[in-house]
Design brief:
By secondary structure, the chain is mostly helical. It folds into two domains: 96 residues, Winged helix-like DNA-binding domain superfamily/Winged helix DNA-binding domain (Arc Repressor Mutant, subunit A), CATH 1.10.10.10; 70 residues, Arc Repressor Mutant, subunit A (Orthogonal Bundle). 58% of the residues lie in helices and 6% in strands. The chain has a two-stranded antiparallel ribbon. The termini are far apart.
């Protein structure tokens, strides 16, 4: 059963334009949301670069707009295998969903003391496809202990743990596999 906003007679772009006042979007977020609706409707490949070219906004503004849309619950970024899906159902639904792991995003934002960019949220979603959520939390804790709170460092921690076949039990006990 399709959702009301997926019906053939609904033009999602017009609906977004008609509801801009209630969506509480900045101009860049509104333009980015409209481009996402448009790209999804035409089944075009979506990337920061393609959105930037289509909208005339800089990559930085697109990244910031997408982070804002995610934070407001209008955009969910999911990675399946090698494909990234930009799901904008939150624009049309009463409930607002950040991501399926919004508490993990919230934890990272709290520790980074800033809103994560869409690229950083993509990275967390990528990690979730490869490792258990608990490893991602432990990696953040380790980065905090070493005062190296950045995604590159955390990515290296996770890669090393996978290489070493470190278990979550070892991490919970404060031990690491050194093989």
């Amino acid at each position: 059963m399709s959702k009301w906003y997926e019906e053939a007679h609904i033009d999602q772009r017009i609906w977004v334009l008609d509801h801009l006042g209630t969506l509480n979007l900045s101009a860049e977020e509104a333009l980015t949301a409209l481009e996402l609706v448009h790209f999804n409707d035409l089944k075009r490949h979506i990337s920061l670069d393609s959105l930037s070219k289509a909208s005339g906004l800089s990559l930085e503004k697109i990244d910031k707009a997408m982070a804002g849309l995610s934070r407001k619950g209008y955009l969910i970024i999911k990675i399946n295998k090698q494909e990234v899906a930009y799901i904008i159902d939150g624009l049309f639904e009463d409930k607002t969903i950040l991501t399926s792991d919004s508490d993990l995003i919230d934890l990272y934002q709290k520790e980074f003391k800033r809103t994560l960019s869409s690229t950083e949220m993509d990275k967390i979603n990528d990690w979730l496809t490869r490792v258990d959520r608990a490893f991602i939390v432990h990696a953040l804790r380790e980065a905090l202990m070493h005062n190296k709170v950045n995604f590159t460092y955390i990515d290296r921690i996770l890669a090393q743990w996978q290489k070493d076949k470190t278990t979550i039990e070892q991490l919970n006990e404060g031990k690491r596999n050194t093989n």
